[in-house]
Every structure is written in structure tokens, then in C-alpha cells.
Amino acid sequence: MVHHFVTALALEVELAQKAREHKLINDRQEQALASEKQLRNQDYHEQVWGQWQRIITVFVLGATLLGGPVGYWFGQQSVSDVKGVAERVF
Predict the structure, then answer these.
(1) How do residues 52-78 score in pLDDT, each as one tens digit?
(2) Torsional sign, CA 8, 10, 13, 14
(3) How confident is the model at residue 26 (pLDDT cuts 50, 70, 90)?
(4) In the chain, what is the straight-line distance between the N-terminal and C-terminal CA atoms, in Å?
(5) How many C-beta neighbours within 10 Å does residue 2 have?
(6) What is the torsional sign of CA 65, 69, 72, 77?
(7) CA dist., res. 85 & res. 80, Å (int)
(8) DSSP H helix total and E strand total for the chain
(9) For residue 10, what pLDDT is reported?
(10) What is the pLDDT of residue 87?
(11) Is residue 5 over pLDDT 80?
(12) Residue 9 to residues 2, 14, 21, 31, 33: CA-CA distances in angstroms?
């Protein structure tokens, strides 16, 4: 009787230990998956932000480079308009 009780108790302890080991393994796997997912999301956000940075850089650079000639052209137009109005009025 006592022998059966000790055997059952030992078996129960062994099962509890195996359950704990399985839980640790599952927790580690879940943690690894969560870390991998976080890294993938971080890579995606860095990639998207990099694309937006390039778009903004091209836009600002284009506006800067075109701003000079376009501003000069509008300046010439307004000067010639003023001259034309002055010639007509006076």
C-alpha cells in the first residue's frame, strides 16, 4: 500500500516536472516568435520611412534647384509686365 502511494507520488512529481519543462519550452518559443515579429515590423517601418525620406529629399532638392530659375523667370515676367503697364499708362 505504502509502495503504491510512493510510486504514485513519484509519478505525479515526474509529470509535474515534465509539464513545467514543456511550459518553459513553449514560453521560449512564444518569446522567440514575438521577437522575430517585432524585428520584422521594425524592418518594415525602417524601410517605409527610408522610402519617405528619399521622396522628401527628392522633392526638397527639386524645389530648391527649380526655385532659382522659376523665381528668376517670374521676376522677369513681373518686371516686363510692370514695364508694359508703365509704357501704356505714360
Answers:
(1) 999 999 999 988 888 888 778 777 777
(2) negative
(3) very high
(4) 128
(5) 6
(6) negative
(7) 9
(8) 1, 0
(9) 84
(10) 65
(11) no
(12) 10, 9, 18, 33, 36
